Amino acid sequence: MLSDVCNKLHLMKEFLRSSYGPTARLKQVHNNIGGSVVTSSTSSVLLQAVASSQPIISLIRSSILNHVSRFSDCGLFAAVFCLCLLEQAGQCGLRKNVMIKVNKHLLALCTGYLQQEDCGCKVKLDFCSSQSLITLARSVISSKPTCVLTEPESGHISRLAVQAFLLTVPCNIPDTVRLGRTVTITIEGHSVLKSAVFPGLLLSMPENLCFDSLCSPLHVVLFSISLAGDLGEIGDGRIEMHQGVDVDSQILDQLLELGKQVLKDGVKLFLCQKVIHPVLQHYLRCNGVIVIERLGSKNEVSESTSVLGCSQTEYLLAAEAFCHSLELVATSLEHDGGTSLIDLTHAHHWTLPSDVTEEHLEGVMAPCGCGVVESCQNKTQSYLDTKYAGFSPAPLLTAAPLQATVLDSFTAKVNALGVAVETANLVLDVRYVIQDVN
Ligand SMILES: [Zn+2]
């Protein structure tokens, strides 16, 4: 039973690992009873698609999905790191409670390092220029091969993403700053380059919307009462009517009268906070009016921390498992059998194609993965998955601000790191699984 879980975890790790990074491999997921086929390399899509009856897998899955729902990035990093930690924990044979304590302790060390002002993992942002923000957006977008975007298209979408973000920042600074929200709506049949940002409040998005039919200014009508034709909202009064009158059709006639008036007034957007009678909706839509009923909204929340007590040997073994897991995540960026190098000065990362031979390794003349370090001198490099002496990465001293070509969201990454360790610890702490089989 235990080895069955381990096999499933290993399979899940390999599956997600090969979907990681800018050269990720796409996955096609379909279940054995038919149904829709999902193609993606994005963690949120893949994890939604691979439901498992194994409670441990479900736990990891929902933990990562929760991270992605809040940060929209670094889901695969979290998942792969978590699964590597679990696999390493199994292999090093330490007591689980020691593993858990050391993992917590090392996570606190990592987080402390990352939060330092001069930490080398951070890039100073120049807010007079949107270039860094666009680079960040582009790093995320260009790592999604399913989007099949051309260079100009991913550039355009990256700029729009930044523009949309900037529009969420309030102009006046109140006591507590709350960012607005960006909603992305996909419309079939249009060029990616025609995508645009519209500031304002999105209430609902009707299907088959054609932007060409919208002219501005737009005449809008909003009702807060029900237009369903029911009589529930007229209060306690009495209604008198002639015998033989069909109330329903009388009400419908009135509603259609309203519809005619709306058309006469040139209204293009017809909104109602409650229900609209289907006949009235049909009438308005046939005449080119966008109709939206039952206007509403939604929300979300979540959070956790550390202690220690073990022998030095245990500590070192656990620390090695932790570090090796992190390295495994970095080597997961390469999918063509190539190798990963680290420079032992600044700790930046290079991937080399598999056809590079030992002789060619006299320094790498290409920039590192993030583009900040231009080349890696001989003797200052090491294979990532080999042993090398521990060191503290030296800061890069350059006159000009660093120009990274690939940027990750810092907050998303830091959170993903925490989620990975905490989820792994949670799984390590599981003693019994009690399941309702009904
Ligand atoms: Zn780099």
Q: Would you kindly provide a written description of the structure presented here, covering whatever features stand out?
A:
The structure is a single chain. This protein has 438 residues and is mainly alpha-helical. The protein folds into 3 domains: 2-120 and 303-429, GroEL-like equatorial domain (GROEL, domain 1, Orthogonal Bundle); 131-194, no CATH class; 211-292, no CATH class. The protein contains 11 helices and 8 strands. The strands form 3 sheets. A 3-stranded parallel sheet has the order 3-4-5, with helices on one face. The chain has a 3-stranded antiparallel sheet with strand order 7-6-8, with no helix packed on it. Helix 2 (43-49) packs antiparallel against helix 3 (55-71), helix 4 runs antiparallel to helix 10 (312-331) and helix 5 (96-115) runs antiparallel to helix 11. It is elongated. The two termini are 21 Å apart. Residues 298-305 have low confidence and may be disordered. Residues 348, 368-370, 372-373 line the site of zinc ion (ZN).
- In percent, how helical is the residue content? 25-40%
The major sheet is characterized as:
3 strands, parallel
CATH class designation of the largest domain: Mainly Alpha
CATH topology of the largest domain: GROEL, domain 1
Strand content: 5-15%
Uncertain stretches of 5 or more adjacent residues: 298-305
The topology string of helices and strands comes to HEEHHHHHHEHEHEHEEEH
Assign the CATH architecture of the largest domain.
Orthogonal Bundle
Q: What's the gyration radius in Å?
A: 28 Å
The average pLDDT is: 82
Cross-sheet strand order for the largest sheet:
3-4-5
| Sheet/helix structural class | mainly alpha
Number of strands: 8
Number of helices: 11
Bound molecules: zinc ion
Global geometry: elongated
Q: Roughly how many Å apart are the termini?
A: 21 Å
